[in-house]
Amino acid sequence: MAKRDYYEVLGLARGADADAIKKAYRQKAKELHPDRNKDNPQAEAQFKEANEAYEVLKDADKKAAYDRFGHAAFENGMGGGARGGPRGQGDFASAFSDVFDDLFGDFMGGGRGGGRRSAAQRGNDLRYNLRINLEDAYAGLQKTINVPTAVTCGSCKGTGAEGGSEPQTCPTCSGMGKVRAQQGFFTVERTCPTCSGMGQTIKNPCQTCHGQGRVQKEKSLSVNIPAGVETGTRIRLAGEGEAGMRGGPTGDLYIFIEVNAHALFERDNTNLYCRVPVSIATAALGGEIEVPTIDGGRSRVKVPEGSQTGRQMRLRGKGMPALRGGGFGDMFIELAVETPVKLTARQREILKEFEKLSEENNPQGSSFFNSVKNFWDSMKG
Ligand SMILES: [Zn+2]
Ligand SMILES: [Zn+2]
């Protein structure tokens, strides 16, 4: 299941202010506090969820990051380990980097736009959607992907000018990228029509790239997907996006993970849920069943005598790994008692006898039937 929105967790509208957040959190904390909700795992989970949401939203910087990127802001590369860790595993693994790097780069005035555009422009960021299986999300995987992208033109080395000639300062705007025109009483400033705001013109454009300084190409990348990713996890490969225009810096590549639904397991964060059929005899008498685990193994689980459909059993540590380390979730097995079908004559005979014995064994009938009888009696009156 996808992670809930932090504002939603606290019952707030997106972008609520600090006061509202504090108030909403206090309210939730009071309501869901474990002292008030003994043996209520749902309240416990919600309490944790509210704490996590508040940890992020109370911090102005983290809140700004969350408002901008959602949960993706805190996935991958957040921990100190991710920075130093993957280096040395090849060029692309080392490109794992902290989402905050580019975030704060923008805040600190590294932002684009405004003023004159420089001739060199940063390349676009690219998004690549990657679907993987739950098994791969469990174990992590190394994957080669082919990304259609723009790379620096080899013929002109990215300058866009043919045969080693240099781009010229635009004669129309003298390199300002903007021109002024008198319109009635006003002076209007607009983007230079000659150079489209670049401030430079190329007399003799490169024939390979038509003066763009880059060409389209499919790039093959080896990507390291860490264990514990889930749908919505975003992995940033710095400098693997499109090449910049005329020698500008390269954009980044973002890999968005989508994890396929699994035939056996349902996932909720790090926990896994598996519904396991159990025979009437095993459910009634108790016994042992064998269940599959996500690592491809199997575990034996004791079924207590008299188990009903819906009974849950927990296998500790048999869930998914946490993305930023910190161990594994649990696996929950939910029993589903199966009614036997396609009976032989002998089985039929035994069941009929069993039914007869059950009536003799419990002549008052079950509490359900007593309730029904009372209900009907009350309707008569
Ligand atoms: Zn110009
Ligand atoms: Zn070129």
Provide a descriptive summary of the structure in words:
The chain is of the alpha+beta class and 381 residues long. The chain contains ten helices and 15 strands. The strands form six sheets. A four-stranded mixed beta sheet has the order 10-11-15-14. It has a three-stranded mixed beta sheet with strand order 1-9-8. The longest helix is centred in the N-terminal third of the chain and has 17 residues. It is elongated and about 105 Å long. About 11% of the residues have low confidence. Bound molecules: zinc ion (2 copies). The site of one zinc ion has 8 residues, from loops.
What is the strand and helix layout of this fold?
Blueprint (H helix, E strand, L loop, with lengths): L5 H4 L8 H15 L8 H17 L2 H10 L10 H5 L14 H12 L15 E7 L1 H6 L1 E12 L15 E2 L8 E6 L2 E6 L8 E2 L12 E12 L8 E4 L15 E7 L6 E3 L2 E9 H6 L1 E6 L5 E6 L8 E4 L15 E8 L6 H17 L5 H14 L1
Parallel strand pairs: 1-9, 11-15
Antiparallel strand pairs: 2-7, 3-6, 4-5, 8-9, 10-11, 12-13, 14-15
The chain binds zinc ion (2 copies).
The site of one zinc ion has 8 residues, from loops.
Binned strand content: 15-25%
Average of pLDDT: 82
Tally of alpha and pi helices: 10
- Write down the Rg: 32 Å
Q: Which regions have little confidence, pLDDT < 50, spanning 5+ residues?
A: 76-117
Q: What is the helix content?
A: 25-40%
Structural class: alpha+beta
- Main sheet strand line-up: 10-11-15-14
* Oligomeric description of these chains: single chain
Q: Whole-Å distance between the termini?
A: 50 Å
